[in-house]
Amino acid sequence: MNYIRETCGCCDCEKRCGALDIVFVIDSSESVGLTNFTLEKNFVINTINRLGSLATDPDAESGTRVGVVQYSHSGTFQAIRLDDPKIDSLSTFKEAVKRLEWIAGGTWTPSALKYAYDNLIRDSRRAKANVTVVVITDGRFDPRDNDTLLTYLCSDPRVDVSAIGIGDMFDQIEENEILNSIACQRDGRVLGMRRFADLVAEEFIDKIETVLCPDPVVVCPELPCKSEPAVASCVQRPVDIVFLLDGSERMGLENHRQAKEFIENVARRLTLANGPSDEKNARVALLQYGSPTEQRVEFPLTHNLTVIADSLAAVKYMDSSSALGSAIIHAVNNLVLSQRDRVARRNAEVAFVFITDGITSSEQLEEGVSAMRRAEGVPTVIAMGTDTDEEVLRKVALGDMTAIFRGSDYSMLNKPAFFERFFRWIC
């Protein structure tokens, strides 16, 4: 966490890591896929959340600055610069990361390392700052690229490099050597994993946090707590949000009503698309589900707030059983796709928001999660109360425990603290 809450609950204690310049180099090639690219971005955001506030002035001698390079084929580099004067807070950094769009081309990893050093580090590094580069890739680089550039970052002894390789290919000795070259043959700086979902696992982020900030200082101000500033409401970033609302008897009528109120409040807070052809901003859909044969599209993806509000007012509580797997399949086939054509916008992040306790039939659950992956959906889970099925919640969240939002009961949904935290996440 970027803040450590004192036991009295009064004030926020801030973690300080000294002067840090951190650059993430993330693979945006076609083989990564949109869902995994979104997981890469979530990894960057979740990691920086742990490190306290960012430097408010890019020229300041102290504080943390963060840069990002996403790369694909030759010359297709996009960057968030370390010295960007617009990046002066966690909120502005998160917005910049979320606006990065998947390139979906080839893989020119060596050239990306050179680009990162030449354009983000060499001329903008601070004299007293520790510089760390974290490289994420899923595969071999294009043979047309210059392999001698794999060690480009190693020419500067003041730069610490960690390489994260994702996928089965890194079990092969020759491919693992690519990672070792990127990480300058340093022990403990090569990390491998099978799935992109493992990037956002708490245990892995703990490990990266230790690499980036091995000796943190915790400072507790003697001031009343302040609420964090609001961030842009998915402005300009295309997001198609599909809510899946549990209509089972476990939910209860009052909890169901509060969940509907929450969905409407989210829709009202969002910057909705201007029309059917608007490729930016947000759209919302709702599916209520019960038994394996009970799935009801309450409203499809829409930008029309009147349609959303009127549809929610007309939603009838199913008071049924729960079959989440078949509900996900139905949502994919009827809200995201239609007769194999994509209903969700081409460049939009498809956010699946599950309001459930996870206690559901296991029938078709694996198939449902696989369907969501194929549709490149990014899950968020809202689980209220303590009587939950943690295995199901973790599975639906693709292993990302930070994507599971919890509260003591459904009345928490519309409390400012919970609502703002969820909203910052989804946007």
UniProtKB/TrEMBL annotation:
Keyword Metal-binding among record annotations: no
UniProt-recorded Gene Ontology molecular function terms: extracellular matrix structural constituent conferring tensile strength
Pfam families assigned to the protein according to its UniProt record, in alphabetical order: VWA
InterPro entries: Collagen-VI/PIF (IPR052229), VWF_A (IPR002035), vWFA_dom_sf (IPR036465)
Span of domain VWFA: 21-208, 240-422
Record-linked PROSITE patterns: VWFA
Alphabetically ordered keywords of this record: Collagen, Signal
One cellular-component annotation, GO: collagen trimer
Source organism superkingdom: Eukaryota
Family: Belongs to the type VI collagen family.
PANTHER family: VWFA DOMAIN-CONTAINING PROTEIN
Function: Collagen VI acts as a cell-binding protein.
Name by which UniProt lists this protein: VWFA domain-containing protein
Natural source organism: Periophthalmus magnuspinnatus
